[in-house]
Design goal:
The protein has 222 residues and is mainly α. It is built from 7 helices and no strands. The longest helix is centred in the middle third of the chain and has 35 residues. The relative contact order is 0.15.
């Protein structure tokens, strides 16, 4: 590999890791704003959304520059392709964190409303999946990537359970419909964050093993 290309790839790797860590923190802060009804924290996240967008654009430009200058092949090419896809997933996770913060901002102003569903398990699992997807990328850990894919089924089940409970409440407690719909949105956004973390895990598997496994069932034996 040419020295300059290695230097640019190393810089790109550092940038995608930094973006992953920034997005991971935003998911944590956003969910905290909902659980603690923290309007200040929610507002700060909403106003800081542009930072992630700027990181995404810079990383995409760097990927295109490497492709144009060096025409990489084999694992180097797979790395650039994977980063382009992971970059997009991280940006979407950042957007979803903002969406959660917006729900948190609204709920913080509803003093007479208590969230009727324990979001703690969903929040913890979504955060864990994002963290592990970044770890899998950093360490090229295929085993962890397969574990994340399997975990996504658990998140889907949690989301279905929450939906069923809130659906009954929406029917019986018409005065709280708007508030309940905001809680429902939080759950849906957490489930989507888990989906994007799963996408990142699948891109790690592509990077390391050169296998495209999207839309295939998880058959990995731990």
């Amino acid at each position: 590999m040419p020295k300059h290309m290695q230097h640019d790839i190393d810089k790109l790797k550092a940038k995608i890791i930094a973006m992953g860590e920034a997005v991971e923190d935003r998911v944590y802060q956003a969910t905290l704003s909902v659980i603690n009804r923290d309007a200040v924290k929610a507002n700060a996240l909403i106003k800081g959304d542009r930072e992630i967008d700027d990181m995404e654009v810079e990383i995409e430009e760097d990927c295109l520059k490497i492709l144009a200058l060096y025409q990489p092949v084999a694992i180097d090419l797979r790395f650039i392709v994977a980063v382009l896809k992971i970059n997009s997933d991280l940006e979407r996770i950042g957007d979803l964190a903002v969406n959660i913060a917006e729900r948190g901002l609204f709920l913080a102003g509803q003093e007479k409303f208590e969230i009727p569903f324990d979001l703690t398990a969903m929040v913890s699992l979504a955060e864990k999946m994002v963290t592990e997807s970044i770890d899998a990328l950093i360490n090229h850990d295929v085993r962890l990537a397969h574990h994340i894919r399997a975990t996504d089924d658990t998140m889907d089940a949690m989301n279905r359970e929450m939906y069923a409970q809130l659906k009954e409440m929406i029917i019986t407690d018409t005065e709280q419909v708007n508030n309940l719909m905001h809680v429902l949105s939080v759950g849906r956004h957490l489930e989507r964050i888990a989906d994007h973390a799963t996408n990142i895990a699948e891109d790690v598997i592509y990077l390391v093993d050169a296998q495209i496994i999207r839309h295939t069932p998880e058959l990995y034996d731990e």
